[in-house]
Amino acid sequence: MAVIIKNQKQIELMREAGRILAIVHEELKEFIRPGISTLDIDRKGKAIIDRFGCIPSFLNYEGYPASICVSVNEEVVHGIPKKKRILKEGDIVSLDAGVIYKGYHSDAARTWPVGTVSKETQKLLDVTKQSFYEGIKFARAGRHLHEISRAIQKYVESNGFSVVRDLVGHGVGADLHEDPQVPNFKPIGRGILLQPGMTLAIEPMVNAGKKDVWWLDDDWTVVTKDGSKSAHYENTILITEGEPEILSIQK
Ligand code: MF3
Ligand code: CO
């Protein structure tokens, strides 16, 4: 296992990849409404990424057939966009996207309500996003990686939801998936010591019901076993000498 520390030049490229991805998500947010298909979202996302001259990180990644992972309701992650999958009022939709800018990846996910959602569903979205922020309180040089994981899990579970165990966050850089793995639950051990120049994709996946998931027959779409809704929130961050820098949000 080798964690790649990025130099200033590489960090600049990752900042730009993150800045562009933040705009992709802002524009997609405005596009979400009842009546559109999940394929419409993929097409729109691809067009925005093209406009910046970037490459969608996920397109053809290990055979994934689209640019944006679009996961509705009980779909946790890696939903495949489809013409016939139409969003309706009260749904939630997770959009996971990545862009490659001059050889460097950014990776980020948001979960949006479609029209008005129930109070409990809104709480799921809020807790999922906040769990990321609880986690990155520990994303500092000198801390251990699993302090992030533990903070995410603690916050989610104290709010009555569960964290998915079968998928984790990861290092990100010239490759979409680099070491280390970043679990959203506390594994055995402290994890690596965090150092300035590390770039991580931290991505809590939170189920309203039980933590268990399985894969659909398409071999991509991950769904909750109990059919409960699931939300995903992710950003690419940089470990610095001080506060972590979130590369994939608009500043
Ligand atoms: N954010 C996801 C991840 O970190 C996206 C990968 S989807 C894939 O794994 F299609 F590219 F596999
Ligand atoms: Co990721």
Tell me what the structure shows.
With 251 residues, the protein is an alpha+beta fold. The protein is 28% helix and 24% strand. The chain is built from four helices and 15 strands. A hairpin with a 6-residue loop joins strand 11 and strand 12. It binds 2-amino-4-trifluoromethylsulfanyl-butyric acid (MF3) and cobalt (II) ion. Cobalt (II) ion is lined by residues 107, 170, 201, 203, 234.
Concise overview:
This protein is of the alpha+beta class. It has helices at residues 8-31, 38-51, 119-136, 145-158, and strands spanning 55-56, 69-72, 75-77, 92-101, 104-113, 162-163, 169-171, 178-182, 199-202, 205-207, 213-215, 222-224, 230-232, 235-238, 245-246. Cobalt (II) ion binds next to loops.
What layout of secondary structure does this protein have?
Layout: H1 8-31, H2 38-51, E1 55-56, E2 69-72, E3 75-77, E4 92-101, E5 104-113, H3 119-136, H4 145-158, E6 162-163, E7 169-171, E8 178-182, E9 199-202, E10 205-207, E11 213-215, E12 222-224, E13 230-232, E14 235-238, E15 245-246
Antiparallel strand pairs: 1-4, 2-4, 3-12, 4-5, 6-10, 7-8, 7-9, 9-14, 10-13, 11-12, 14-15
Helix pairs in contact: 1-2, 3-4
The chain binds 2-amino-4-trifluoromethylsulfanyl-butyric acid and cobalt (II) ion (CO).
